[in-house]
TrEMBL record:
The keyword Repeat is annotated on this UniProt entry: yes
InterPro entries the UniProt entry points to: WD40/YVTN_repeat-like_dom_sf, WD40_repeat_dom_sf, WD40_rpt, WD_repeat_DNA-damage-binding
Extent of Basic residues compositional bias: 52-61
Name of protein: DNA damage-binding protein CMR1
Pfam families in the record: WD40 (PF00400)
Listed GO biological process terms: DNA damage response; regulation of DNA damage checkpoint
WD-type repeats, residues: 356-372
UniProt biased composition (Acidic residues): 229-239
Species annotation: Penicilliopsis zonata CBS 506.65
Keyword Transport carried by entry: no
Protein purpose: DNA-binding protein that binds to both single- and double-stranded DNA. Binds preferentially to UV-damaged DNA. May be involved in DNA-metabolic processes.
Family affiliation: Belongs to the WD repeat DDB2/WDR76 family.
Domain of life of the native organism: Eukaryota
Amino acid sequence: MANGLSEFEKQRLANIAERDALLKKLTQEAQSSGLFAKPSPKASAAADSPRLKKKPSVRKVKKEEEAPVPRRKSSRLLGIAADSEVAKRKADEEHEALQQAERAKRIRKSDSFTFSDILISGQKLSGDSLIGIDMVTKGVAKPYERTFGDEDIQQTTDKELRALREEMSNLQLWEAWEPSRIKLTPERVYTMTFHPTESKPLIFAGDKMGHLGILDASQEKPSSSIKTEDEDEEDDDPDPVMTTLKPHTRTISSMLINPSKPTHLYTSSYDSSIREMDLEKTTSVERYAPESTSIDEPISSIDMAADNPNSLFWTTLDGAFGRFDLRTANRSAVKSWQLSEKKIGGFSLHPTQPHYFATASLDRTMRLWDLRKLSHDDPVPVGEHESRLSVSHAAFNSAGQIVTSSYDDTLKIYDFAAKGLSSWKPGHTLPEDEMKPDVMVRHNCQTGRWVTILRPQWQLNPQSHIQRFCIGNMNRFVDIYSSAGDQLAQLGGEGISAVPAVAVFHRSKNWVAGGTASGKICLWQ
């Protein structure tokens, strides 16, 4: 017994082996009949690991009602034998029903909505205007480690540049609420914009699941919420008043305010649609989408020329570029060009010469195009520049300069005004050496899977001749640069616990907003 197992122990191990063999046989028979799929090792490990189990999060945003998922029915109670053709057919039908339910959630809704139809949470708008009549007129990032600050400003010898650096660096976080309290969307912020009004900061944010959040940052915290030292320390302060809508069924990829109608907001989505929201009448209508809901053409970006508010331009994840006249209801009148074999992540029109536009693509190129000479069969760009890795976005400013962000960890600035862009004739092309960037700035663009891609955004109407743009910083700041590549500021503050990856400038005021993966907003003014 000392050198071996007892008879009792041998019998116990034999019983265990016999039981395991029986269970294995039953499992294999059930899988072959299609009753259930074998779980993946990763899924099993994740389910069993106590470290990976997450506590359910409590959200203040009310979830929309979803169609009930078909429930499984017991084959035993229905009198169906486990290993039979009927059981296999039943399992196939249940699997197909679940797939159809998931597909139905992602199909765009082409109806016209009032805000009450798509309201998720926040302010009820019963008949009132949302904005009011006054609105009509490389390496691992080290969180909170600054790479630009007061010392850099003090060492600036150019008086004008130093003054601008001081001005931009003096922008402060909105004091009324900490960023952790301003949860504008339920999911990750993907795109943002300011309303062009200068009377107050009005921010729009679109998220990963098609929600649209609206924040009026002119509101003040109620005086009753100010506590004294003797009062309870529990956090009972009310959150800021926000409105959350759901006009799309998938990611809101881009948004803009109609330059001629400040009450009209356009949003594009991966659900293949572009919707127009009337902020005064509180309605939302679909302005463009493929003729059938079965056609999947995710839209990556939209833009509109200031002097032609009737034409809407967009790009897709399939590399297409399109134009649609909003005055017609005939969707077959859409004009489109296949400009890339891969995803076009972002594009923009030249603000004052909108026949020129720039595209940024997954094929690693930034291309400059001229609509006046753009063939549908064989579109040829004015010129192109190839980066080492994919280019995320290309943004035009009114001075004829383009800034791009790329996964090669650079911001590239191209000055086409200095190369005579305003005097180019239709069909003008640039050789490869003239398409090289004039300035390159090192910038960590490794966002990973859970942070929205970093995209630079110009201030469209700066109140000085120095052009400037903003972009998120993986150290949890927002960086501001000039068109010469000089850093003007690095905006941060207490309470910022995530990367404000989606950063935008107000058109004319020195207001900057940043959106995070948790749907929260930072505002500097």
